[in-house]
Amino acid sequence: MTPALVVKNVEKTFNPGTITENHVLKGLNLVLEEGDYVTVIGGNGAGKSTMLNAIAGVFPVDEGEIHIGDKNVTNLPEHKRAVHLGRVFQDPMVGTAAAMTIAENLALALHRGEKRGLSKAISEKEKEFFRTQLKQLDLDLENRLDDTIGLLSGGQRQAITLLMATIKKPDLLLLDEHTAALDPKTAEKVLQLTDNIVKENNLTTIMITHNMRDAIKHGNRLIMMNDGHVVYDVKGEEKQKLTVEALLEKFTHSYRQTAFSDRMILG
User: Fold this and answer.
1) % helix / strand / coil in the chain, to the nearest 5?
2) Nearest residue to 261 (alpha-carbon basis) of 184, 251, 217
3) CA 69 to CA 204: how far, in whole Å?
4) Phi then psi for 257, rounded to 5 degrees?
5) Contact status, residue 88 vs residue 165, Cβ threshold 8 Å
6) Tens digit of each residue's pLDDT (9 = 90 or more) over 24-79
7) Radius of gyration over alpha carbons of the chain, in Å?
8) Which residues of 214-238 are buried (b: 16+ CB within 10 A; e: fewer)?
9) Three-class DSSP category at 70
10) Each residue of 215-258: pLDDT tens digit?
11) CATH numbers and ranges of domains, the chain
């Protein structure tokens, strides 16, 4: 069976040959099977977000290959990869158009990649579908289709962004610290929604988090990055038995340094 994602020997250096040269990804290798829900942790500068940007095609890689399913996307620009990907960023304001209504935002996501004029009316069938999707969020948004997104709280916007990213089942869902800007209670709600949506749709998912407890609690697999590559990869029963203390010991024993802040440990 073809893996859902293959990242093979990927290298990325920013500003090469200058005083600000930064070699971020150093022979990065990662293989995800279909349905893998992988949490990613690591210190600042470990290469976590750069990895997601490389997969999404935000910039070209210097060396290596990236395959999504059976497609070699290494040389595809970002907009041509977008049809395969769903992505949610840390900032709740990034994933939605504030001046547009909830229904209009969902319609854009539903018809992503299709040739469709923005002036085309949203059908009643689509509105009913949106209400059904919104109801599962349990945020009382299903009867607010005509409200503009800008009126919503950060947590509500992030929940809708998550829905938009998955409304057309993507080949790969990328979550870049998507709860970091939310208060703890709202973050927990959005994480639970994430788990539900990923499980219901069997979505192959990469979730970067700064919180070690969340990294252990969510997903079926955990990887730790340091210095531009994967230094620890654990899944299944072994992951379920992981503790924060064991994870810290694993890192400090292997690399003789502590790259995790209290925020990462405690959230």
Assistant:
1) 35, 25, 40
2) 251
3) 11
4) -155, 160
5) yes
6) 999 999 999 999 999 999 888 889 999 999 999 999 999 999 999 999 999 999 98
7) 19
8) bbbebbbbbbbbbbbbbbbebbeee
9) coil
10) 999 999 999 998 899 999 999 899 989 998 888 887 676 555 54
11) 5-97+169-266 (3.40.50.300)
